[in-house]
Amino acid sequence: MTTERYPTSRPAVVTCGLPYANGSLHLGHLLTTLSGDALSRALDTLGQRTAFVCGSDMHGTPIAVNAHENGESPEAFAHRYHEEFADTFPRFDVEFDNYGHTHDETNVETTREFVREWIDNDHVHEKDIKVAWDPEAGQPLPDRYVEGTCPYCGEHARGDECDEGCQRHLEPGEIEEPTSTLTGNPAEYRTRSHKFLRLADFQEYLEGWIDRLEGTENAKNQPRQWIEGDLQDLCITRDMDWGIDYPGEGEEELVLYVWVDAPIEYVSSTKQYTRRVGADAYDWESVWRDDGEIIHVIGQDIIQHHAVFWPAMLRGAGYNEPRAIMASGFVNLKGKAFSTSRNRAIWAEEYLDTGFSPDFLRYYFITAGNFQSDINFTWSDLQGTTNEELVGNIGNFVYRSLLFAHRNYDGTPLADEPTSDEVRERIEAAIDDFAAAINDYSLKDAATAVYELSGFGNQYIQSKEPWKLVDDDPDAGAAVIRDCVQLSKAVAVLLAPFAPEGAERVWDQLGEDGSVHDAGIDAALEAPPAEFGTPEEIFTKIEDDEVEPLSAELEAMVEEDEDDAEDDGAGDEDVESDEAPDIDETERDRIDFETFQDLEMRVGAVEAAEPIEGADDLVRLEIDIGTETRQIVAGIKQFYDVDDLPGTRVVVLANLEPTELFGVESNGMVLAAGEEADLLTTVGDAPVGSLVR
């Protein structure tokens, strides 16, 4: 693993968590997939040789259970969903270099090679353990055939994880008060012999590796509680028929645990890509065997598997280590996790049926907040982000620039002349910001660099007024439009990872050769074609009448689910592996007191307020914070009468870095609560400028 800035001279592989072939995809499943695709595209843009690989997770007890209930073989059942996934991802512009599955021949053989290496290096031992047994059915109960109580937090747990409580991995025999899901009867524990990977062999290595790991803070910090404690050995076998057979003599009844062969699919899928394109184009061994760049994009519920088990598994087989892990938050509805069994979800197919561009969802997911934070999905939030940022800012600037250029010059005026110093320097700054963000694994900051560049373009064209210069000073007018077309091309190059269709549309309208997705970062400063045709709108606004029925349907679904939960007398017991507990959970991603002290929050008073032209939600505020009057942009127009805002007491985050929203600089943030943007204030008469402590 290296710490060189991207792009490096070594090949990289980007992976996202394997979707489980046990049901259709919903938007919660798409968060890490779309993010992984965006990261892979961004690295390509920087010039990093990158492969983006994944596959369907085909093994495990849930698939065996559901296949049996459905009257199918586990292989046929899982393969049907695998095909559905493979067909669905391209419709969201997800371009895997290879998409395989864990039951294919490559992964079966690669998994067995890994385990043989562990055995040969004396990392595997045999131990008698307690295994849940259904006395009525007369069989052992692997993983999801058993439910009970988590021994660590006391919450309801299923099989191999406490998915409703502490989310800790559970070994066979740990669940208390076990119950068989086959018969509903109490289960009993019986002694069985199983194989274990001795994680203690890798403890010293893991303690050093976690200090080298890059990525999100949750992925780097959460595993320390396990790595720096007493590492429990990982049981790598199960009593069941469906899976990859354990490669040992006389062990025909055992199959490998699903969390053994699932991450190994990352290696297998990369192998398959190399076989297709040739080692000269991309060599899987230089990534996985040597010192290539390995980046995993996952949900936060599987951090332990990727930051404890997986690096030990790689080390034990003589493979390279991951350079970075990006762990996302969850996608929720009204603060509650998606649930397949309760039909509390927005399905991938439902989104596609709306006719909304995949760009809208991709951009919304990437810019909705800190990657580690949960996203509380609403159709109105999707609409707001799309209309204000993609349509109102980025699309508006590009379309007005290209339309003016086409009508007055049939393309780019002065195409052989360089751009102005001001615009060239601004594009170079955006490129630097984009590269820095990707090196910091912040997709949101990279997308913000594009948004702010476009915002600069809107401000630039508005201030220069080329429509006046065409008659008064034609040479100056041509120079301004030359700059605006160059800015539009730069926006297309930097936008491509986040909104692939829109960026390609700009590229085509400019008359550029090839695809924007094959263009490197340097193309942002290369001269655009001298001629191009009539442009069209880049993005289409989402109208209220499109969103209102979707919002009503979503509201009805959530209310029905809440009513069902009350009738059941219990909460949801079918939260999938990529789902979170209620939003009220406060135990994840805490900050220390020193970090909190860095926040400068002050009482402010609104002195002036006015809507921002062309923006549906944004208001420009002038706020006295005691030491000075700040200009701050806030998305509150739809909730307040703008004329009533002057005189309102608010709480301002004063030491936030300035940013630009819809072409207007915002120097701070007004704090508000909930989806109705309820402005925070003080109960008493704290003086303006008072610090909030």
Automatic annotation (TrEMBL):
Record-annotated TRNA-binding domain positions: 595-693
UniProt KW keywords: Aminoacyl-tRNA synthetase, ATP-binding, Cytoplasm, Ligase, Metal-binding, Nucleotide-binding, Protein biosynthesis, RNA-binding, tRNA-binding, Zinc
Highest taxon of the lineage: Archaea
Co-factor: note: Binds 1 zinc ion per subunit.
Organism: Halobellus ruber
Protein name: Methionine--tRNA ligase
Gene assigned in the entry: metG
A GO CC term attached to the entry: aminoacyl-tRNA synthetase multienzyme complex
Subunit architecture: Homodimer.
